[in-house]
UniProtKB/TrEMBL annotation:
It comes from Chromatium okenii. It holds the Pfam family Gp49. It comes from the Bacteria. This is Cytoplasmic protein.
Length: 111
């Protein structure tokens, strides 16, 4: 088995992920495993408003839409910036600002 990049959860992202319903949590784990193996998640989009190389994994289940915002461009780890349930069509400003702040802090830490 090849060396998998570890996943680092920033801020409250791990607790937020743990609050997802079981089926969404299971799907999130599968999608993050795909990223660890160097593959694309099944449903994702770039989040350039948050930062360069930041992506959003999109998960839908019976309880609604769930999102995982992460960045995998660093050699040492995959960083999960934010996990949340999406309640409207547009991502809320507060969810975006949480992800942006964690991304800025991460970039500062790596420079």
């Amino acid at each position: 088995m090849s060396d998998l990049k570890p996943i680092q959860f920033l801020g409250t992202s791990l607790d937020d992920l743990r609050s997802f319903p079981v089926s969404a949590r299971r799907e999130a784990g599968y999608q993050l495993d795909q990223v660890q193996h160097g593959h694309e998640p099944d449903d994702w989009k770039p989040m350039v408003t948050v930062g360069q190389s930041v992506r959003e994994i999109r998960i839908r289940d019976a309880s609604g839409g769930f999102r995982i915002i992460y960045v995998a461009k660093f050699a040492n780890a995959i960083y999960v910036l934010h996990c949340f349930q999406k309640k409207t069509q547009k991502t809320s400003i507060s969810d975006l600002s949480i992800a942006k702040k964690r991304y800025r802090d991460l970039i500062q830490e790596h420079s």
